[in-house]
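Field reference: sequence -> structure
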Amino acid sequence: MFPVRLAVLSSLLLASATHAAAPRYLTLLNRAHDSITTLEVAAAGSDAFEQRPIDAIDGGGGSTTVRLGDTGCRFDLRLQFRNGRRALYRDVNTCKGDTLVITLIEAAPRNAGSR
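Structure field:
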């Protein structure tokens, strides 16, 4: 009985180690108005952003799939749009989903209301 338990435990540990080391991919679905021109990725909370090469992701429904990293599930993503605006998506959990829908709500100009 002991050898069977040991074999089951070993296979579970191996499966966990393989799952933890699997590369993480994420599909970016751009529902914002402008194209995304730049993508930077960091482990969640690390601020160690690295640029990922992408072709521009058209606004209004363009998409692409990118490799984020080889370890962990949570990432921070920093995006730059063609119009110069930036967006930061923190703590994106790739173990719970494989698509990030990007929206950029137009806000009032920064100097609105200041005189």
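Note: The longest helix spans residues 2-20.
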